[in-house]
What we know:
By secondary structure, this protein is mainly alpha-helical. It has helices at about 5-15, 40-60, 60-70, 85-90, 100-120, 130-150, 175-190, 210-225, 225-240, 285, 315-325, 330-335, 335-340, 390-400, 405-420, 430-440, 445-455, 455-460, 500-505, and strands spanning about 15, 30, 75, 265, 295, 310, 335, 345, 350-355, 360, 385-390, 465-470, 475-480.
Amino acid sequence: MKNIFAYIFAGILAIAVSSACNNLLNIEQHGSLNYDTYYQTDDEAETATAYTFLTLRNLEETIFTTKNMLSDDFWAGGTTRNDSPADEKLNEFTFDSDHSSIRSLFSGYYSVIYYSNVAIHHVNPDTPVKKRVVEESRVLRAWAHFELASLWGNPPIVDHELEASEYSQPNSTDKELWGFIETELQEAIASGALAQKSSLNDKDTWQPTKQFAQAVLGKAYLWQGKNDQAAKVFDEVIESGLYALYGGEYEDILRYDNTFNCEELFTIRRVDDAAAVWVNINTYRIGIHWKTDAMDLSSDFSSMGWGKCNPQKSLYDAFVRAEGENGYRLSQTMKTYPQMIALGNSIKPGMTLYGNEGFFMWKWRRLAGEAPGAGMGYADTNSPRFMRYAEVLLLAAEANLGIDQGKADRYFNEVRTRARAESKSNVTLADIQLEKRCELCGEGTRFQDILRWGIAADCLKNQGGEIPSFDANGNVRYQQYNKDASKYGFKEGKHNRLPYPALEVSQNVNINQNPQW
Length: 517
């Protein structure tokens, strides 16, 4: 099987893309590609999904930064106040419908949908490879619609390439949208065409698998309160025996040299090749690495980092509640400042870290070896992970509450055991909420979860009131930048759904804006 990037590069040569037209649903494809003569071979069919994967990989920064900023786990951080005003507005809930990240996230999901539609409607599924290409495109199309539904509520369904006369699509209804997502995934799973791993140690099956499709379907059921159906489909993923929790040190779970381990359900690889560093221009991992120009670091770590997305004390406190202040997973997820000093990393005298309470993410630390190629500090070989088996287990535990408490306990404690934390019996939703916050922090699940659980207002109502700074002496100072409490923090009835981007609303006469936007 060819490497994914062989297909991506072939696709780049075949297609030129432009997406700046009437509105964000208009992603018009231009170029010399002739659908009557292309996609005839299996290799050509593979290029149909190349752009979908490339688009999704390039959305890493938008997806994870936006979701992390909207959660109660992280501060925007950066160099000083207004160093990253877009992130600050998300983090403090002072953004409006014209926010650049909201617009990019919305249009990015529809780009994934567009390229999926190209594959679905122009690849003739007359060989096993072509059938797989079509069905995995349906999975990714459904996944993108799920993301839109869970964040915006009732976005348009786009199930084909839009003609110019169709760019102004109306809002969907809950029944239509969730029904579409369910049907897409159910039929893709039942097709028998989706890939499956050959074993726990299979690192070559990188496409969206049958089990990934089942996990997304389980999430769709759970988001609708269909817990019995969700429990059944999550059980099928677990019982497949093709995935397991990573058995090495927890601190290595997201390492650049640890991709496609037994825990990863869907990951898109970045090339680890010094001769192809231009493929890996990626500011996300640099952005969330520590503020390196304000710190003296051990030579083990990259010297380029912008100090964004720093853990809030409330996240640290959640870990302490879950496993104690000396918890194994806590120490391998983040470090306190005294722990950083002991490891040879300190803040330079007289320097201050903005948006920092003295905690440093360790799970996504950036090592010197992640920047191949001389002078290419912006290159990064770490691959974006979009779902881990730990999430499946915790979703399955939640789905089984009130249905099979034994399974709920077993799935929950499998994650706890790997974390070297004490097992629990008769676990509750509150237990699962806490465990999921700790296990998946920074991996883009928290905001959608607290919206679904109805606790977002309690968690985020004061976000933006005071912003911390941390100095070399270990002191935290809080500054009030937003004076009017009515203009910051999560507002019930408004922030439960993201706003449709102002550009889309201004150009699309058929879409209705979400309440209070």
